[in-house]
Design brief:
With 1164 residues, this protein is an alpha/beta fold. 39% of the residues lie in helices and 15% in strands. The protein has 40 helices and 36 strands. The strands form 7 sheets. The protein has a 17-stranded mixed β-sheet, with helices on both faces. A hairpin with a 5-residue loop joins strand 6 and strand 7 (202-204). The radius of gyration is 33 Å and the shape is globular. The two termini are 58 Å apart. GO terms for molecular function: fatty acid synthase activity.
Length: 1164
């Protein structure tokens, strides 16, 4: 099999390829050349000049026109274009060199694993890590580089080189998708397989990918300038190899952290043979920590500042593990060319020094810490005092450690607490680890490393503090001369103007007060200062006095700045009490939950994917995936119920008018459950006996008679079909059916099961180009539970098309049945069962997913928090569109966009009229924003299309905020199709038309104004809740298509309130709702702040965000309370018994027994 390497151009090979990689073909002692590849067979810049002069000449001519372009002169650009050129020749079956052909065929069969190839959903697993931002930056660089190349080369040359197809030549205003795919393919190959050497050479060596890589040195790769008379890439044995022993590739280019390995697509992606995947850390492991240090204009003019920057850069470079150990002919690590300290010019002409530290288990060198501590001091106040190095080397090192400690504490909070648990749950039993799992494992490993680094820093600070205190005690009673010598020996300098500042210098060296907090030397800390001190502080560090409790520190209107920018003292108190501030901005998501023991086991209950504890017989508690820090497991006071023989349930199929017939697998599952009768809605409910059996056998009959709802225990509604119908038709049909059930069920304990297939939940959007018709019904169902609780509704969505459907249906229905069955249940047990039946459950590959809420990465929502401006290409030349922007949330969103820097904005209403006197629009115009008011009925597609065409006159569309909507409130039983469509169309269809006709625009943000009614239901607003649920699913669809989208579920908004404490008329998207419960609404500043966060925020979040005021944290519905479980678990519990606290609250709220309430919480 060594012929494989010979075909790729190798002149010598002692390896052979097998199914798992490569192995030694014969015994090879240490130092033996295992592979020899002549340099002329590699992909190099020199090879482009000889093999592909068209590329070389085109780049040379473009470089003459644009001599400042580094891209045109880079070797990587030549190699990438050479790859694309030869790949096109291969696809056209043109004659080419055999070794090139063999390598391209090998590359075509590879799947790129570098972060350049990861999608948005996969990259979200890197939340909290430096590599998330780096991956986005590199992906953006690929697009920018291609745009620059196409502009420099021109369309004709680009077409000749294979960058652009002939059909795309006419217009290069936008990068053709085929061109981007080809260029990204070449960049992925170079990032994953390219080699860089100390000598500056860059090349791609074919065939090395056959070996696989390793983090353990067993081979060494070198670029020999003369090997047997010509330059060659040689792989040497770095130890003795036996014949047949596996050989893997190692060189200094692989001496990197897991983050770099993930970036370059390196590493072992296979599932471990034994046990679950773990977060491992290797010898080269480090975490990239980015410090942003603002520098004043006065400091930037100081020559000493720039010498500090250069000294810091040199110290950081010298501290790298490979420094000084590389030979000229060896490959270099991936961060070899990285500059660790960079100076960035900001828009306000101020400078910012960005320091990128690779932090491992050991601290940076003392020299690096000293220079970093000096750099932290470079602010205006200190330089005006003539003080640049007031505390000497040790004090500067201490200050740098404190800054690093605080930065690491903040970084630790950004890492998700459940990364490792999620990785284990998402990892398959065998095969390759999915990208999302790899990202989660990296995040877990980095979090562990950050925690270890914090411990090391704390120990260093504590040790240094004790040394300083000991030196201070030694100085007492010593004269000035002796004191000076002692200070010099400890490394602390004194005031150059005299001994009067000596005691202050020693005091500063001991107390280490932060200069950048603006405190004067020797000033006493106030209670405000102490209240906002970071939790990270050296033990034993003296303070003037202890802080009061958070509730005693409340000062109205006061703000703090250390890590809580824009927060009031009320916010800080709430964070101490609740664990977060209000209102809470939350991710709306689905999470995997364990299967639970059923209460009723009248017949054998299938438990797919669940294993009972054989030792105790008890079922384990729910794992808490959402906690920031480990805490004792909550123990459930549940005992497995004893099997009780009970009569079988009476099942029937309720078929809606627009639904399709159930697939054979569903029919088989229903028949196995004893479901034979079919009910249809024909003005009233009609029944066809044995309908399911005839449907499964292909026999049809129209004979039907009036149905009695009380004759059944469970009605299954199949939510598939409605193809070609309007999006709201399913909701209209389901609404009519539920209204009939409410009127006819009487006092019977009827249960409704909505059964769908990949319509909602995780994985439901795969391959879709439109919103599922069933998604809007989610808001309708949640409102039905709030208004007509006598009809419990279980929504079960599954991906199964086999016998698992029967098992899942039995399992979910039996979970909520009382012991002994329905016939023998007391009224209290029936009520408990009804509550437990109300839930949405999604099954994916046998795993059970439930809806959950947890804090968004954009938290906290401080009204005074500063949010960075939008990029200039969005604000200066782009246009923002706000539908419904003349009042309510739409107008507040428009004001937020102006605060973010938008210069052109179009706001619409149905008739182009203002809802107020227009003063707020005039204020936006006075601030420099051009505001145009347009008339547009967004429920009409042609009107939306014409509006978007008119907007192009003002500039490219960059931001869309859809806030249009009307209300037509009515009781659930009084809702009618006409009123339903009146509310649904402008909100849901308007959003869909905006989505369809802006897909080709390069949007920065696409924000949909949804409602909390879609999440928790709202009495009288079934139509509005359904429309809002459609918006939520549209946002998820756009995210799945890699298009920008955020749907914000708003609560009631006080139209006239600038403060949360003031209560005017509550509004919901501009119209009065009458929702006046204290703490249930938010103020206009909060609306504007949330809009700014979702539009300009950089952190990846779920496509659906919910804004929760305080009143929503005390729900009366156990179904809603279960959604809030991750949020409520953040509440600090000093007693350490969270389960008893929650159970006690539930008992007081509902009057049910503790065991029943706990059971319902678990089920939902």
């Amino acid at each position: 099999m060594s012929d494989r390497f010979a075909a790729l151009g190798y002149s010598a090979s002692k390896l052979k390829v097998n199914g798992t990689g490569a192995c030694a073909a014969e015994d090879a002692p240490e130092g033996t050349p295992l592979l020899v590849l002549p340099l002329q067979r590699c992909w190099t810049a020199a090879a482009v000049d000889t093999e592909c002069p068209q590329v070389s000449q085109a780049l040379a001519k473009a470089a003459l026109r644009n001599p400042d372009s580094e891209l045109l002169q880079a070797a990587s650009t030549k190699i990438a274009l050479h790859l694309i050129w030869e790949r096109r020749r291969l696809s056209n079956s043109e004659p080419m060199k055999e070794h090139r052909k063999q390598h391209l065929q090998l590359l075509e069969g590879r799947k790129a694993e570098t972060l350049l190839a990861w999608g948005r959903r996969d990259l979200e697993s890197l939340t909290g890590s430096f590599w998330l931002e780096e991956a986005h930056r590199r992906q953006e660089d690929v697009v920018a580089d291609l745009e620059s190349l196409l502009a420099d080369l021109g369309p004709e040359v680009s077409c000749k080189l294979g960058l652009v197809k002939e059909e795309d030549m006419r217009s290069l205003d936008e990068v053709p998708r085929a061109s981007l795919e080809a260029f990204a393919w070449a960049q992925c190959i170079l990032q994953e397989l390219g080699l860089h050497f100390v000598s500056g050479d860059q090349l791609l060596a074919p065939g090395l990918e056959l070996l696989g890589s390793s983090q353990e040195a067993g081979t060494v790769l070198r670029l020999e300038p003369s090997f047997q008379g010509s330059p060659a890439v040689v792989l040497y044995a770095d130890r003795d190899f036996k014949a047949g022993e596996g050989v893997r590739l190692w060189h200094h280019g692989l001496a990197c952290s897991q983050g770099f390995q993930l970036l370059m697509g390196l590493g072992d992606f296979k599932v471990p043979e034994k046990g679950a995947p773990v977060a491992t850390t290797g010898p080269w492991e480090s975490v990239e920590v980015l410090l942003r240090l603002p520098v004043s204009a006065q400091s930037s003019e100081s020559s000493k500042l720039w010498s500090i920057i250069e000294a810091l850069e040199a110290a950081l470079q010298a501290s790298r593990p490979w420094h000084g150990g590389l030979l000229l002919r060896e490959a270099v690590p991936p961060d070899f060319g990285w500059r660790r300290v960079e100076v960035i010019q900001k828009e306000d002409a101020e400078l910012e020094v960005q320091v990128r530290l690779p932090l491992g288990r050991s601290l940076p060198t003392p020299e690096a810490l000293q220079q970093l501590g000096l750099l932290i001091c470079a602010d205006t106040e200190r330089e005006e005092k003539g003080v640049l190095d007031p505390l000497g080397p040790k004090a500067c090192q201490r200050r740098a450690l404190q800054q690093l400690g605080r930065r690491l504490q903040w970084a630790l909070e950004d890492y998700p607490a459940h990364a490792l648990v999620d990785a284990r749950q998402l990892s398959p039993a065998e095969g390759l680890l999915p990208r999302r799992v790899r990202g989660l494992l990296l995040v877990a490993a980095e979090k562990q490393l950050v925690s270890e680094a914090i411990t090391v820093i704390q120990q260093a600070l504590q040790s240094d503090l004790e040394d300083s205190q000991e030196a201070h005690r030694a100085l007492q009673g010593v004269d000035d001369a002796e004191a000076s010598d002692a200070i010099a020996r400890t490394g602390d300098s004194r005031d150059p103007e005299g001994s009067g500042a000596m005691s202050e210098g020693i005091k500063d060296s001991i107390y280490s007060l932060d200069w950048d907090d603006g405190a004067e030397d020797g000033a006493e800390l106030t209670s405000k200062d102490i209240a906002t001190l970071p939790q990270f502080r050296s033990q034993g560090q003296p303070l003037t006095h202890e802080p009061d409790s958070p509730l005693k520190r409340l000062r109205k209107g006061g703000t703090c700045s250390r890590g809580h920018t824009g927060a009031t003292w009320e916010d800080l108190a709430l964070e101490t009490v609740l664990g977060f501030s209000l209102p809470a901005l939350c991710d709306v998501m689905w999470r995997v939950e364990p299967l639970l023991p059923p209460v009723y086991t009248g017949s054998k209950v299938m438990k797919p994917g669940y294993v009972e504890d054989s030792k105790t017989g008890l079922f384990p508690a729910i794992p808490k995936l959402y906690e920031r820090e480990p805490s004792p497991q909550r123990k459930l006071a549940l005992e497995p119920a004893k099997p009780v023989q009970a009569p079988p349930l009476r099942w029937a199929l309720l078929e809606l008018p627009g639904a399709s017939s159930p697939v054979p697998e569903v029919l088989a599952a229903l028949l196995a459950l004893g479901c034979e009768d079919g009910l249809k809605l024909q003005g009233k409910l009609m029944v066809q006996p044995s309908y399911v059996h005839r449907l499964a056998s292909g026999a049809f009959s129209n004979a039907a008679s009036p149905a009695k709802v009380t004759a059944y225990d469970v009605l299954v509604v199949y939510l598939e079909g409605w193809l070609g119908s309007k999006p709201e038709q399913l909701c209209v049909d389901l609404l009519a059916a539920l209204q009939v059930l409410v009127s006819e069920m009487g006092q019977s304990a009827l249960r409704v099961v909505l059964l769908s297939h990949l319509s909602v939940g995780p994985g439901s959007l795969r391959g879709r180009e439109a919103v599922s018709p069933a998604s809007a019904a989610l808001g309708l169902v949640r409102t039905a539970r709030a208004e007509v609780p006598q009809v419990p509704i279980l929504w079960l969505d599954t991906d199964a098309l086999d016998g698992s459907i029967q098992e899942q249906l039995m399992y979910e229905v039996n979970l909520a049945l009382p012991p002994g069955g329905l016939q023998n249940a007391s009224s209290l047990e029936r009520a408990q069962g009804l509550m437990a039946h109300n839930r949405e459950v999604v099954y994916r590959q046998g795993r059970r997913w439930l809806p959950r809420l947890d804090l968004s990465p954009h938290m906290p929502v401080y009204a005074g928090r500063v949010v960075g401006p939008l990029p200039p290409h969005v604000t200066e030349t782009g246009v923002a569109l706000v539908t419904g922007g003349v009042g309510g949330i739409g107008l507040a969103a428009a004001e937020a966009l102006v605060e973010l820097g938008m210069r052109r904005m179009v706001v619409t209403s149905r008739y182009g009229q203002l809802l107020d006197d227009g003063k707020r629009l005039e204020a936006m115009r006075a601030s420099g924003c051009e505001v145009i008011v347009e008339a547009c009925d967004v429920a009409v597609e042609s009107s939306v299309r014409e509006l978007l065409e008119r907007i192009q006159v003002h500039g490219p569309l960059r931001v869309v905020v859809h806030a249009s909507g009307v209300l037509e409130d009515a009781p659930f039983v009084g809702q009618d199709p006409l009123g339903f469509r009146k509310v649904f169309e402008p909100k849901a269809l308007g959003a869909w038309y905006l989505h369809r006709h802006t897909m080709q625009d390069k949007l920065h943000s696409f924000v949909l104004c949804s409602s909390l009614a879609a999440l928790v239901g709202s009495e009288g607003q079934a139509n509005y809740a359904a429309a809002s649920a459609f918006l939520d699913e549209l946002a998820r669809l756009r995210a799945a298509l890699d298009l920008p989208a955020i749907s914000v579920q708003w609560p009631a908004v006080d139209a006239w309130s600038e403060e949360p404490e003031q209560h005017g008329g509550a509004i919901w998207n501009g119209l009065t709702t009458g929702l006046e419960k204290p703490g249930s609404s938010i103020s206009l500043p909060v609306v504007r702040q949330v809009v700014k966060l979702v539009v300009a925020g950089l952190k990846p979040v779920e496509p659906v965000q919910a804004v929760l005021p305080g009143a929503y944290l005390s729900p009366t519905s156990l179904t809603v309370r279960s959604m809030l479980a991750p949020l409520l678990a953040r509440k600090p519990n000093k007693e350490g018994d969270t389960s008893m606290m929650l159970a006690s609250e539930d008992k007081q709220a509902s009057g049910l027994c503790m065991r029943s309430v706990k059971l319902c919480l678990q089920l939902t």
